[in-house]
Write a structure and sequence with these properties.
alpha/beta; Aspartate Aminotransferase, domain 2; Aspartate Aminotransferase, domain 1; 16 helices; 15 strands; binds pyridoxal-5'-phosphate; PyrdxlP-dep_Trfase_small; glycine hydroxymethyltransferase activity; Serine hydroxymethyltransferase; one-carbon metabolism
């Protein structure tokens, strides 16, 4: 980054600070990952300069030959990776992918049925503070208080009562496999469109480690920067019958010019997802998460649903009398980043919460395996058991640094 260092030292310094944080701290935030150097290059490329409103071969600007190529690559690869009929690779984010589907499939004022934000759903599934709760009548289902699993009886009875125009399956903090077939049956029964938001699990779906939503869903959305390990962004898929409506919803209804440098990054991401090593990576993510879950359970910590099937787990800290906010802070003092997370039926506000969410995608990308994850679980236990005692967090911070020095990442872009 020699240009930036000379021309704008302040911005350069901030970026280097982030490089150092990502290198020297343990990222266990379930929605984060490290992109490959190839993706960094694509996203940092001159394609950021190009206006390309429209679609390949049908642009509103001249000079789109090269950007057409990357968008066509991304489209073809996305269809291959997921076995999809149609994809739009232009949404700027996962939230915008969801907005595009609503714009394509329903009208303002229609009823939507999605998972409650406080039970693990996403803002865009109908939360009142999001456009989705603002412009649509939102009804939400949750999890069974005893098992922590999605309450399908509730989904069915709410669907029968409210007759939603769209039903959304998918979550931001749900540690178990989601069975999409019953959602499809309920959608058919009440005449609803069925959307699966696979943002968190799209890497697992690509690797064949989570059942695919494509055989049953009308629309599928994802963000691209979580388990799929691509640049920040989104993709929206549909059945061929809805292809035109979806493309019109993305552009011109919702967005202007696509971020072609990010579309290039998505093309690279999808090529990486086709490589057999990606399946191995995702399998290691899941194995690591299981080891972490077991280590925490052995230490007396209560995991929602009793464990995990995927890349994340949720600890309910109420038995320990700890808040998610305090736990997040104690762990960050030792260089371990997780995020506070509400637990179902939480009595604490979202700024405090009674739980934390932990995920293994980023740590697995840098090479940590089961032995290391067990060690990490023991550190988390020690820090939380001590309630963030300074001598404990300081001792473990040094151990975390030593461990991570054996698993370098982005070494070549360090100053
Ligand atoms: N959908 C789900 C299930 C998510 O977890 C998220 C992000 O956390 C999104 C959508 C939104 O993605 P973005 O942050 O890219 O808008």
């Amino acid at each position: 980054m020699r240009w930036l260092e000379q021309k704008d030292p302040e911005t350069h310094l901030a970026i280097m600070q982030e490089v150092e944080r990502e290198q020297d701290r343990l990222i266990l935030i379930a929605s984060e990952n490290y992109v490959s150097p190839s993706i960094l290059e694509a996203v940092g490329s001159v394609m950021t300069n190009k206006y390309a409103e429209g679609y390949p071969g049908r642009r509103y600007y001249s000079g789109c030959e090269a950007v057409d190529k990357v968008e066509e690559l991304a489209i073809a690869r996305a269809k291959t990776v997921f076995g999809a009929e149609h994809v739009n690779v232009q949404p700027h984010s996962g939230s915008q992918a969801n907005m595009a589907v609503y714009l394509a499939a329903i009208r303002p004022g229609d009823t939507i049925l999605g998972m409650n934000l406080s039970h693990g759903g996403h803002l865009t599934h109908g939360a009142s503070v999001s456009f989705s709760g603002h412009y649509y009548k939102s009804v939400s289902y949750g999890v069974d208080p005893k098992t922590g699993l999605i309450d399908m009886d509730q989904v069915r009875s709410l669907a029968r009562e409210h007759r939603p125009r769209i039903i959304i399956a998918g979550a931001s903090s749900y540690p178990r496999t989601i069975d999409f077939a019953p959602f499809r049956a309920i959608s058919d029964e009440v005449g609803a469109t069925f959307l699966v938001d696979m943002a968190h699990i799209s890497g697992l779906v690509a690797a064949g480690l989570h059942p695919s939503p494509f055989p049953v869903a009308d629309y599928v959305t994802t963000s691209t920067h979580k388990t799929l390990r691509g640049p920040r962004g989104g993709m929206a898929f549909s059945r061929e019958a809805h292809a035109k409506a979806l493309d019109k919803a993305v552009f011109p209804m919702m967005q202007g010019g696509p971020l072609m440098h990010v579309v290039a990054g998505k093309a690279v991401m999808l090529r990486e997802a086709m490589d057999p090593s990606f399946r191995d990576y995702m399998a290691r993510v899941v194995d690591n998460c299981r080891v972490l879950a077991q280590t925490l359970t052995d230490g007396g910590y209560h995991l929602l649903t009793g464990g995990t099937d995927n890349h994340l787990l949720l600890i309910d800290l109420r038995p320990q009398g700890l808040t998610g906010r305090d736990a997040e802070q104690f762990l960050s003092q030792a260089g371990i980043f997780v995020n506070k997370n509400g637990v179902p039926f939480d009595d604490k506000p979202p700024t405090v919460t009674s739980g934390i969410r932990i995920g293994t995608p980023a740590a697995t990308t840098r090479g940590l395996g089961q032995e290391e994850m067990r060690q990490v679980g023991l550190w988390i236990r020690e820090i939380l058991d001590s309630r963030g005692k300074a001598e404990v967090t300081q001792k473990i911070a040094a151990q975390v640094r030593e461990l991570l020095s054996r698993f370098p990442i982005y070494g070549e872009i360090r100053r």
